User: What shape does this take?
Amino acid sequence: MTIPEPTLCAPDGQKTCFACCPPIRPSGYEHIRHMNIIKRILRENTAGFNRDDRSLSPITGFSCWALGYLDKGYSRIGCLLHPAQNGGTDLRFRVDYGNKCSRESCPESETFSHLDHDSKSFWLHLADGLDSFSYSSKKDNPLFHILKWGTELLELISSAEGYISHSKEHFLETYPFFLPRNSLRPPVYLVKSLIKRDNVHLLRSATFRDRVERFSSRLCSELGRAFVQTDSYFPHKFSSPRVLPFPGSVPTETISHQKEGKGLAEDRPHFEEVQGVLPPVHRLPMDRDFLDFLRLFAKIRRLTMEDALLLKCLTDEKLSRFGKTL
Assistant: This one.
């Protein structure tokens, strides 16, 4: 029998993640805070579910009548209308949410799907012992904040550890760098640029995280000084913010070389400037982690492709210098 590849949503036969159901709910909502009430609702939903019914029954409120138990042991929780539960037939149209349920996913799930098989197994062991409620909690499940670091870094770590499983407690004690942080997104671009196969051990250092955070703060200040930003996100065509020249700027031919596509994500849409309105940073065809750093840390929301390349050259130069001090 072929064992299906584990997913973040359905990692094993003991638990599932149902954090995204229903897809419209209050910000910061977590099922585990209302566990006793939800357990009763899930049992009622499961007992009352008619697999042969094809009528529409729209969701009302923040609870979905099709969320129930997927096994007789009442341990795995998920969508009773999902094609995996109905011989391949997708019944999710019945909740009248259009395609929202079928396309619902999370960034962490996407990152997990790109990990190699051994790395998936390595990281899933951090959630050993969690039930479906704890596993679906961003507070209790360490994978929700660790997966934010991206495939590249996580595969380096699992390989360096020989794919030998760790408990959540042992891993966070060994790698204090990954203790939960307050920011919604970590500075992925900085760390993946600094950490390579021969220096993964830096992530075990209790001081490395503080050093990276201080460097990130200094770098954001320098990027802010390099980028003269107007008060408006929609600057007038005659007063668009520009990146100022900085010492050691990369030669023009280097920027031209990058513009030709080397190292850029080709699947990102090209956003042209229209009447002086600068394109939003997240739409530029560049490394997404770098763009996230510009938006979320340096607070730069809009700029031209040329200026973004200049800022990337400045960032990479500073990273190279900082890396030599580690």
The chain has a mean pLDDT of 85.
